Amino acid sequence: MTPYSELNELLADLTSSARDILGDHFVGAYLQGSFALGDADLQSDCDFLIPVSAPITADQEKELRVLHDEIPTRPGFWTKHLEGSYPLLDELRTLDGLGSDWLYIDHGWRDMQWSTHCNTEVVRWTFREYGVTLAGPDPQSLVDVVPADALRERMRSDIPRLLDDLATWVSIEMAWGQRYAVTTLCRMLYTLDTGRVASKRASLLWAIDALDPRWSELCRRTLDGRALGFDPEDAAAPADVAATVALAAEATAIARRTA
After folding, report:
1. How deeply is 131 buried, as exposed, middle or buried, from its count of CB atoms within 10 A (0-12, 13-18, 19+)?
2. Do residues 165 and 159 touch, judged by C-beta distance below 8 A?
3. What positions does the domain Adenylyltransferase AadA C-terminal occupy (predicted)?
């Protein structure tokens, strides 16, 4: 399932608990994100999807909220790093479902929210092409093919506003935030170029080879710094902040040229 026995036990418990709560509405349980694409490590969240065949009832929502309120209080590492949604299958199946809110838990949080966080082209593509089945049918039977052009169009829309969006919850003046910005830009540029989705590590390695050589050292430092993790007291080097802003401007220019 994953290389981490503690996480495997937690996922088995999550799957069993969700099945008990949702009953006949339970479609399956799956991993997407880093654990589906590969290259997951101790800096990764564990991203899950648990599709439902009918709208979640008030009683089911109450029980799911109790479950996800309790999980982060358990001992262990991965109990604080689960993140995922409970999508309505009819909305998950096609891109017509974009914009719908799904019941969602953010990593480390105890309070669920209704959110579009997982309701994206990228999540659908990753889930369909690489999703890891914990329970239920093959992901390819649940989600239609996500066209490469749909992924590219989303990147053209998202790249120009990335730094503004990040500024609402993290500063690139912090080293982790700066590395996250570079990594996300590389992932977006990879998808814009290939019409596919890659892991953080794979996208940075691609960027080192594929982008203008002036970005190579920035990408290498970002890759090397991943193991440092999140430290709010760790300030980014001013030169790296400036290079990140410049990379965002270059990515925006590339996105506009390909429109």
Report:
1. buried
2. no
3. 142-224
The edge-to-edge listing of strands for the beta sheet with 29-32 is 113-115, 102-105, 82-86, 46-49, 29-32, 132-135
Round the CA-based radius of gyration of the chain to a whole number and report it.
19
Residue 25 CA neighbour count, 13 Å, CB half: 17
One digit per residue, the tens of pLDDT, for the chain of length 259 reads: 899 999 999 999 999 999 999 999 999 999 999 999 988 888 899 999 999 999 999 999 999 999 999 999 999 999 999 999 999 999 999 999 999 999 999 998 999 999 999 999 999 999 999 999 999 999 999 999 999 999 999 999 999 999 999 999 999 999 999 999 999 999 999 999 999 999 999 999 999 999 999 999 999 999 999 889 889 999 999 999 999 999 999 999 999 998 8
Alpha-helical regions (H) of the chain: 5-22, 34-37, 58-70, 89-93, 121-130, 148-158, 162-166, 175-194, 200-210, 216-225, 238-257
Give the pair of three-digit tokens for residue 32: 């997407």
Cβ-Cβ contacts under 8 Å for 72 (sequence gap 6 or more): 79, 80, 108, 109, 110
